[in-house]
Amino acid sequence: MNVSYNEQASTALNAEMSKSVPFLLNPSKTDGLIGSVGFDPINWSDNFDIKWLQESEIKHGRVAMLATAGFMAQQFVSFPMFADIHVDDSNLAPAAVGISGMMQIVFFAGVEEWRTNKGQITMETMFADSDRVPGDFGFDPLN
Questions:
Q1: What pTM value is reported for the model?
Q2: % of the chain residues with pLDDT over 90
Q3: What is the pLDDT of residues 36-83, one digit of tens each?
Q4: What is the distance between the alpha carbons of residues 121 and 126, in angstroms, rounded to a whole number?
Q5: Are 23 and 17 in contact (CB under 8 A)?
Q6: Which long-range contacts does 41-50 make (Cβ < 8 Å, 24+ apart)?
Q7: In a 3-state reduction of DSSP, which class is residue 94?
Q8: 27: which residues sit within 8 A by CB, 6+ positions away?
Q9: Nearest to residue 24, comparing CAs of 42, 7, 49?
């Protein structure tokens, strides 16, 4: 099939532009998602499974909320067993705890990832069940 130069130019001119970044094309795979305004400047939705991207965004948001709550709580609550490693600057806390304390966080995050996904933690296997909804881990404390 031969496509003339005018047809290619016409297609490029008719492309829908992103609402959030007007000089980029609208990523079509994000249309219809909650809160989508066409923000995908690196085109991740074209290269990765959109369900996996949604799941990672939800998880990172939840972890960030927990981290923020913990950051504020540590100003008012301290455990007696950790009284000798108190630091005034929270940026020094990882150094005060040491590598073993930080590796415990990484290890238990991995265990939780394994548990919530029933052992399917790669992008290829995480959504093998087509009925699985991103971010739904079956935990609803209000029901």
A1: 0.70
A2: 9
A3: 888 888 888 888 888 888 888 888 998 899 989 988 887 788 888 877
A4: 5
A5: yes
A6: 48/123, 49/123, 49/127
A7: helix
A8: 18, 38, 40, 43, 45, 46
A9: 42
